[in-house]
Amino acid sequence: MRTRQTTLLLLVLLPLLAAVAAAGGVRRSLAGEWRAIDVGSAHTRELGAFAVGEHNREAKPLLIYKGVVSGEVYLPDPTRLRLVVQAAFNGYIRKYEAEVWEQIPWRLVSFKPIP
Question: pTM for the whole thing?
Fold first, then answer.
């Protein structure tokens, strides 16, 4: 009799525990994570050019945009992007990390050289 009650209790509790574990997994992904984006898309290239242009508007030296090397979008908020762009100055090409908020209007949040 005792074994039967324990088995029934387990049958009731296991699906409940699985649901709780699954809900915990959803909560973790809602905390936010960076995911890779397609750097070959016209939109991503446009964002990279925007980042270099905004940097040039705010600071010296003037850089020449060369392209996007890699990029990530922050989920669950797809308006935050982190791009690695290439830009030239005096014939030398360097990589820079730019964070862009793709809200209206777009906004350059940070732009720094990558050592």
Answer: 0.70
